[in-house]
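Please, structure for the following, as tokens.
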Amino acid sequence: MRSKSFFERFANWATFFTGSSNAFLGALLIVLIWVASGPFFHYSDTWQLVINTGTTIVTFLMVFLIQKAQNKDSKALQIKLNELIAASKEASNRMVDIEDLTEKDLDQLHTYFVKLAELAKKESDIHKSHSIDAAVKNHSAKLKNT
């Protein structure tokens, strides 16, 4: 494995830290100090501008940090799901990397799985499952056998 870049290490640390109780308590402390300093600064426009600017900057930066963490988690989850699909002899390998399909293609797959769910509701055994390639064929065969 390659070593992580400085940004990768920083992003991991920042994501971990900002999701912690200590980060929340630190932010709360900053807000309380700002509120308590109001009378000293006579609740001036500058006093208000300090908190508005600070929170805007932090929010702006956090958007990118959260998106990076979400992208990484999503990619890891997709890889794990792809591994499960590849390892299962009954799962359709066409499902690997479907996140790269167009929205229209994903909608078509969704419609298929809605139909598959409707077929499954008609089953007497709720544990039966079908791959994308075998679902209609298996269902037809089951109907012929009954």
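The mean pLDDT is 85. The helical segments are 6-18, 21-36, 45-87, 103-121, 135-145.
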